[in-house]
Amino acid sequence: MRRLVASLLTVLLVGCASGPAMADKRVAFVVRNSNYQNVVALANPANDASAIADLFRKTAFDVVESRRDLKNTDMRRALRDFTEKARDADIAVIYYAGHGMEVDGTNYLIPVDAVLERDTDAYDEAIALDRILQAIEPAKQLRLVILDACRDNPFVKSMKRTVASRSLGRGLAGVEPSRPNTLVAFAAKGGSTAMDGDTKNSPFTTALLKYLGTPGLELGKAFRLVRDDVMNATANRQEPFVYGSLGGNDVVLVPAAAPASATNADTRADYELAERVGTREAWNSFIAAHPNGFYADLAKAQRNKLEQGKPPAPVAEAEAKPAPPAAEPVKPAEMVVASRAPAETKPQLSLPPDLPRLLQTELKRVGCKAGEVGGDWDAAARRALAAFNDNAGTKFDIKLASLDALDSVRARTGRVCPLECDRGFRAAGEACVKIVCDDGYVLGPKNTCEKRPERKATSAPRRATGGGGRHCFVYGGNSFCE
After folding, report:
1. Which of 120, 141, 236, 307 is least surrounded by CB atoms within 10 angstroms?
2. Are 405 and 382 in contact (CB under 8 A)?
3. Angle made by CA atoms 190, 195, 196, in degrees to the nearest 5
4. Can you count the helices (H) and strands (E) in the chain?
5. Phi and psi of 338, rounded to 5°?
6. Helix, strand, coil fractions of the chain, as percent rounded to 5
7. Residues 6+ away with beta carbon under 8 Å from 277
8. Buried-state track 337-374, b at ≥16 Cβ within 10 A, e below 16
9. Cα–Cα distances in angstroms (integers) from residue 227 to residues 121, 202, 242, 318, 379, in the given order
10. CA–CA separation, 346 vs 414, rounded Å?
């Protein structure tokens, strides 16, 4: 019977060992400018940008850099840093929510400290769209800029024209990217403005959240669906528009999930079958079909445990022991019954004793676990799994370590939880680097460089003379004589 089960196991495991293909590296930079210093603040960009950043994290982007209320210098530095992250990326995305403007046919994104008294100030105080495109230029497959910045521009009303013929258009001007596989998506068609809407998110971002995260959805179709939703929501008053072009191959922002037969589901099912048989031959068959990976390591441990717990018999006994009779041929009907019988009383998969340590190791690899990795499922480990749930969109029970959680974390190829740095440091790739402010700037309460406040001069005592050769002083509203 043992030989029969081992033979059946070998047949069931053939051809099931195939590893997942390496995923493309995807990086995203999300900016929201809402608390403008010289015009009225915007309400929706904070919600819009936060929701988009969460979408990228939940769809397992390798890098999601999210910044808010950037001043001119900070925005230029952030773009420079993101260029390094996009250097080895396949897909690079920049999403911007805030004020934008068009001056003489050139589009600009407006930092929160802009004054823009004259039309020419845009060259110095705003960020040209061409600079945004340069930041994602190194990406190999797709370069995508999404601009929810086509609102009415409050700076235009008070801005002085230095040249009467210089145009200051409504919204943003249409563009034509010079690089292939580059798209620029506007919330509203060139020369028109977008609406913030009456809900938590703008109509444009609401549609983006609905379609961009759909696994396997071709990007061009996703933006066509976004256009239809926005036009329906705004009674055809706002039409999103995408500039640029893609090649003939389908481009997706979020890859489709691998079919179940290509994931760990088959390997785990085979492991359960080998465990039900529980013999050395069964584990050998499993390892032959699945020579590498987590379950292969477990199977080898199970086989070693069998060999250590049952020492081999002495040579004399082995020779004296009569050989067992040959097994009778089994009819096909009996084979079917034998293969189905275990499924009726399927036992629970036994958990490896070091599962907490294995899960913590993987949580640390994807950036969700800080500190040391231990063998106990303690409060720090529970916090790490909770952070993974928040950023990956999963709902694993944090009270215990489970194989399902381990499988899910192992499937992630890059960082899931954002890198958190102490005050005075900022995230740069996978490390925290010290923030160094330029001369005349100091580190502010928001962990950004701010202009050093000027010291107020203190008033000196005022000297007065009194009668009789006495000298009197007036200081702080009081008189003193000596």
Report:
1. 236
2. no
3. 135
4. 15, 17
5. -65, -40
6. 35, 15, 45
7. 5, 6, 9
8. eebeeeeeeeeeeeebeebbbbbbebbbbbbbbeeebe
9. 33, 13, 9, 79, 46
10. 35
Distance, in Å, from the CA atom of 420 to the CA atom of 174, rounded to the nearest integer, reads 38
How far apart are alpha carbons 443 and 170 in whole angstroms? 37
Which pLDDT score, from 0 to 100, does residue 312 have?
Answer: 45
Q: What is the pTM of this model?
A: 0.53
Which pLDDT value is given to residue 67? 94
225, amino acid identity: L
CA distance 109 to 33: 9
Q: What is the DSSP string of 153-191?
A: -TTTTTPBPSSTT--EESS------SSTTEEEEESS-TT
Strands 142-148 and 182-186: parallel
DSSP for 270-308, please give it. Answer: HHHHHHHH-SHHHHHHHHHH--SSHHHHHHHHHHHHHHH
Scanning the structure block, which residue is given the tokens 């002085």?
A: 160
| Regions of the chain short of the pLDDT cut 70 | 1-23, 163-170, 197, 257-263, 309-353, 428-430, 455-482
Residues paired with residue 182 on neighbouring β-strands, in sequence order: 143, 245
Give yes or no for a contact between 272 and 346, defined as CB atoms under 8 angstroms apart. yes
CB 270 within 8 A of CB 283: no
pLDDT recorded at residue 30 = 96
Q: Which residues contact 239 (CB under 8 A, 6 or more apart)?
A: 188, 189, 192, 227, 230, 231
Q: On the CB side of 248, how many CA atoms lie within 13 Å of its CA?
A: 0
30 touches 56 (CB < 8 A) = yes
Q: What are the beta bridge partners of residue 147?
A: 96, 186
Say which residues have a Cβ less than 8 Å from residue 407's Cβ, sequence separation at least 6: 264, 268
Give residue 431's identity as a one-letter amino acid code: A
What is the rounded distance in angstroms from the CA atom of residue 3 to the CA atom of residue 6?
5
Token digits of residue 175 = 């563009």
Residue 199: the pLDDT is 77
The string of DSSP codes covering 313-372 is PPHHHHHHSPPPPPPPPPPHHHHHHHHHHHHHTPPPPPPPTTHHHHHHHHHHHTT---S-
CA 36, CA 481: separation in Å to the nearest integer? 53
* Degrees to nearest 5, angle at CA 293 with 283 and 305: 35
CA distance 408 to 412: 7
- Contacts with 93 (C-beta within 8 Å, 6 or more apart), sequence order: 26, 27, 28, 29, 56, 136, 144, 145, 146, 253
CA distance 138 to 263: 32
